TrEMBL record:
GO CC annotations on file: membrane
Organism: Thiocapsa imhoffii
Entry's transmembrane regions: 7-25, 31-47, 59-84, 146-173, 224-248, 260-283, 303-330
Entry annotated with the keyword Membrane: yes
Domain of life where this protein originates: Bacteria
Name of the protein described by the UniProt record: AI-2E family transporter
Alphabetic keyword roster: Membrane, Transmembrane, Transmembrane helix
Membrane topology designation: Multi-pass membrane protein
Keyword Transmembrane helix included in the entry's annotation: yes
Localisation per UniProt entry: Membrane
Assigned protein family: Belongs to the autoinducer-2 exporter (AI-2E) (TC 2.A.86) family.
Amino acid sequence: MDRAVEAFIRIALIAVLVAWCFEIVRPFLVPFLWAVIITIGLYPGYLRLTHQLQGRRVLAAVIMTLLSFLLLLVPAILLSASLVGEIHHIINLLMHESFKIPPLPEAVTQWPLIGDDLDRIWTDGTENIKSLLTELQPEISVAVHWTLGVAGGAGIGLIHIIIAILIAGFLLANAEAGQRASELFARRIASERGLEFATLAGATIRSVTRGILGVALIQSLLAGLGWLAIGVPAAGLWALVALLLCIVQIGLLPITIAMLVYAFFHLGTLAFIAFLVWSLFVYSLEHILKPILLGRGVDVPMAVVFVGAIGGFLSAGIIGLFVGAVILVLGYKLFLVWLHDHFDRSAKPASSSTESDPAS
């Protein structure tokens, strides 16, 4: 009884200590997870850069951090400036009453149930935009609050990414110590197979980073810069929508068709042909890069990585892309280990009995 009480007290103290530590680091958990993902994704490039710099690890980490900031912030600032400028332009139009709503097509007014209401609201809007805004104020308030919530979430996410890049730079500068610590932890958890699972987890994160998020980011940035070049309204917002569509594997096709229709009516022939070629090039990157990068370096079927990434994204957001893929790949490998071990144990008695039988 004394030993049981003593063991209970020790376990309780350890549990309280772990819970307290978790509560302290909880605000930094998401940036730290992103930092680990960014570090694993950048590590091969960091090794090559370190070799070229003759072993200067800190300088290589600083250069990789600055490059990450440039790749993230420069396109984000350009597209955000475009979005803010379009919003400011719309507000000016509404304030000076220079914004006119075209008449509603007659075919729409004939729609059952909603045609008359649409015609009334649309007519009020064409005659007096202020009265229409006053009538639709509750719906506009809900839309504004939702938009502000989305914008706030995106802003917090951007701050997390900035902090994560800084942490990733520190982790890259101390990559060897971090690798030894992760190997020790993996061996402590799963003995000799722990190192195999740790290597597999790193390869999975790199695969998802390049094959899903990397391709989506490249496509959305290139597409957004193309839309910005031809003067598409709110190009930054459309680039964000394109990024989400690429991440959930819907792809750029719906939004590309819409942009081509816009370009057809607003650009000259030569400019439209150039934009068409650019759009086809950006759209084809998915079919060129993803088969090459997704699953590269991971000794599991590509479908397992893909299902884990998409399922994780649907259940836990962008961070779930990596967590879902890693968990499903590790679960798949554990299942194979269990299956092969069971098969080997069942096969050994049969082989030994066959060897001992002289007739065989």
